[in-house]
Amino acid sequence: MDSTPSPSSSSAFDLVSSALGRYFPRGGAAAAGGPADAQGERTPRRPVPDPPATGRQEQILGAVNLDGDLIITRCNLDAPVFTGLDAVAGKPFVDLLPPGDVPTVTRRLRQVLETGEAHVARIQRLRRGDGSELVVSMSILPAAAPEEGLTVSVIAMARRLHLYAAETAIGTSLDIGETAQSLAESLLAWGDVAAVDLDFAVWTGEGVTGQTKGPIRLRRAALVPDRAWPEGYVTPGDDLPGDASRLLARAVLRDDVPQTIVIPDRETVERVFASPRVVRALVPGERSAGVACIPLVLDGEPPVVLGVAEVWRRADSPFRDNELFDLQELVARTAHHVDLARQHQREHTQVLALQRRLLPRTGGDTLQIASVYQPANPDSAGVGGDWVNSFPLPDGRTALVVGDVVGHGLGAAATMGQLSMEARALLSAGLAPDEVLEHLDETVTLLDDAESGLAAGYSALGSTCCIALYDPVSHQVALSSAGHLPPVLVSPDGHAGPLAVRPHPGLGAEFALREPFDVHVFDAPPGSLLVLYTDGLVEDPAVSIDEGIARLADAVSTVHPWDALQQAARHVVSALAPTPQRDDVTLLLARMIGYRKGDTATWRLPARQDAPARARAQVSALLRQWRTRDDIRDGVVLLVSELVTNAVRFAAGPLTVRLIRTGHGLLCEVGDTGSGRPRLRRGGLLDDGGRGLGIVHRLTTRWGVRWTDTGKVVWAEVATATPLPGRWR
Questions:
Q1: What is the mean pLDDT of residues 699-720?
Q2: Residues whose CB is less than 8 angstroms from the CB of residue 626 and which lie 6 or more positions away in sequence, other chains included
Q3: Most CB atoms within 10 A, among 53, 161, 270, 307?
């Protein structure tokens, strides 16, 4: 290496190098002693005592000069702490960096070159020739005119300074994998290899207690440095061998008290583990033979062990007492971050499971369904409140529902689940989309009530929802929206565009601002594609929301009628989802199929005494044409007769009789202008009223009522033992 230049030079490199000789004399602390005797009967631990004070400071400052191509021109890294750094003139500086840090550091170096503004005190790892790493505080300084290039000053992190920096860095994420990785990276300052192994219950977010039941199971959560490891070595995501898990758990819980243990050399490691397979799984290499195992302990009575942190060293560099104290202090201070990440993981898993459960599973005979739910990257807020659902209604229609609940986490998840289940129940009961949204509006207002609210500290005001009901007979969709973005409809000829839906303030608006919910009815012929989504798919700060919706319309217009719908949905999301993703992305594609004209029949009859006879004759003729079995035909004729008789007796105006041939049976509908709701009652032997509905109840698999603008429709479903012949699929 170059010798220290004259302090008269004004370059940054010369100033730093001058400081090396002036303030940090060379020589440093005494070298660590050799490996300690490891023949202790109970604990294979013998750390090296701290050396006596020498009255001299350890040199921890170094400097490297770079040209405009980031090539080293000269350097001063003579301090013992920098031993192993292969910094020579003519070598690229990035060769000293871990591969994963090269892009970021290169960008910083070039930024200082271009702007002339220094980048100060970056915590950085440098790679030694043997693969180990050194943690330093790195500053990038521009060269003083007339010189060109950069000066990189490095300060080897003192242990206590590193302890503080590590503690503040570890708690920045609530992702359990990132938290474990941050802890492992911090521990690397004390050794050559660092690993964090967590109890499997902690890794999955489950509850942990001080009384462990059953066998111990540890999973490797983090490992540094990032390199190619030998075959059989446990890497992140792998479970430790069962006997290794038991050994580590038993070691750190000696006398039922969590303890740090040290195994000083390879010979002792092999004797303690007593299995070549375990040694191959845990020992990172021939040179890294000594290990300190520090339990991650959650304070309590009894204390809870979350896992084990392991720091591996070469046998010729044993652990000193002050180093073990620092290691234990760092792990003790950061164990609660691991537990917070575990709790977040549990909440994240619960919310995600709820949202996955709400996703539609299949479409049915009359339409095809495909959906994609893509949560945003986990952060402190957790998973969002987007939800989408699709389910068949008892009267043969299909409901498509999408919503976006304000907020994140369990509060939003609870509201999301409540609104979704309430919408399904009300739609199944026959309510129209606008009526369902009125009920959801009241529910959101109730949840925000300070006195009777069910989610204290959480507000769902401003949540949005869109409900679409598809009628496979009329090939029409009835849609209502509460503040949601407009759906996109793709016609069979490929033309796509958003539906003209009147804007609405959303759910839970102030009473003075509330408006009636509109119902929009539009045609959706077979082959049409209806697209429901949440704002995370189309919102991008770089473009307007209208442009985002237009991009979605262009993307779905390319979906061919023969394309696999689920694959097409994934392609649309991958093409449109913003990067980075700030919100959950939800997409639902519904391809309309409907019934053929020959699978349905509709008759309009006057409400007269001869209406039942006319209905029986027409239905009987149609069922013979459909080649329905005699026993089923007789039952359906009787069923229609009872429904028409009931409508003539208790309603007014013309009657509508509709028969639909489905893939699993027959659906009978009788509509009238009456407002009374038929109810099944338990009557006596001599009672005349109520017998018709009793017959309907016994002949059908299910029946019910749905309300229309002009009256009601009583529907009933009759199952067949085998699929009906001639059904178009």
A1: 82
A2: 661, 724, 725, 726
A3: 307
